[in-house]
């Protein structure tokens, strides 16, 4: 993240992936979607008690933060990255989460879901997940192709080489057909209203940073 911050390009969003995700949107589509976010971060989070065992013995967290569980992969605004790298709050939280279980799944989410901090683009409520969290991970197969090619999600995870590899091959062909069409000037349908009216955009923090040191 620090290397990206130092890059001379004035980028607006940072996307952190694990290397196992498949892109469901072309680069052109991603640019349009990120513009529709209007500075909001796409960083999941839940305060479900089933995850509290990961950090319970290390409480309290710095600055009396509510610890939030999320995912490693994030879509973060430039302002959020600035806060992560340069604020004392983020530095102290990073040191605090390191001995806990799966710290990379709590660090970014905790910063994004504690509205009293005023982190740029953060979520104004402490809970983004309104459904149910489960530990199982879906390994996609051919039966998932229709859903994957019609979902508003940006990336898909996960595929296995030893389980229905045809699913990955078909998705790859579908993706590059989209890229080929764009290169030929074909306007692909993209419903941006799904992103513009999403909860993370409606409830994004737009004010000044409230707690830096």
From TrEMBL:
Protein known as: Uncharacterized protein
Places the protein is found: Membrane
GO MF entry, a single one: acetylglucosaminyltransferase activity
Cross-referenced InterPro entries: Glyco_trans_14 (IPR003406)
Example of a GO cellular component annotation carried by this entry: membrane
Keywords: Glycoprotein, Glycosyltransferase, Membrane, Signal-anchor, Transferase, Transmembrane, Transmembrane helix
Pathway: Protein modification; protein glycosylation
Organism: Pomacea canaliculata (Golden apple snail)
This protein's record includes keyword Membrane: yes
Family: Belongs to the glycosyltransferase 14 family.
Membrane topology note: Single-pass type II membrane protein
């Amino acid at each position: 993240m620090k290397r990206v911050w130092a890059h001379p390009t004035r980028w607006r969003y940072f996307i952190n992936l694990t290397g196992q995700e498949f892109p469901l949107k072309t680069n052109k589509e991603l640019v349009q979607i990120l513009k529709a976010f209007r500075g909001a971060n796409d960083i999941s989070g839940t305060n479900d008690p089933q995850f509290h065992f990961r950090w319970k013995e290390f409480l309290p967290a710095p600055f009396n933060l509510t610890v939030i569980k999320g995912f490693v992969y994030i879509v973060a605004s430039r302002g959020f990255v600035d806060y992560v790298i340069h604020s004392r709050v983020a530095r102290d939280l990073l040191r605090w989460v390191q001995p806990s279980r799966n710290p990379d799944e709590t660090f970014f989410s905790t910063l994004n879901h504690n509205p009293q901090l005023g982190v740029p683009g953060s979520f104004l409520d402490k809970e983004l997940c309104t459904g149910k969290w489960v530990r199982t991970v879906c390994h996609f197969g051919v039966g998932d192709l229709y859903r994957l090619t019609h979902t508003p999600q940006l990336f898909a995870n996960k595929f296995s080489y030893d389980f229905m590899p045809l699913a990955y091959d078909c998705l790859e062909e579908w993706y590059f057909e989209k890229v080929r069409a764009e290169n030929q000037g074909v306007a692909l349908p993209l419903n941006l209203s799904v992103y513009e009216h999403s909860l993370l955009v409606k409830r994004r923090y737009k004010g000044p940073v409230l707690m830096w040191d």
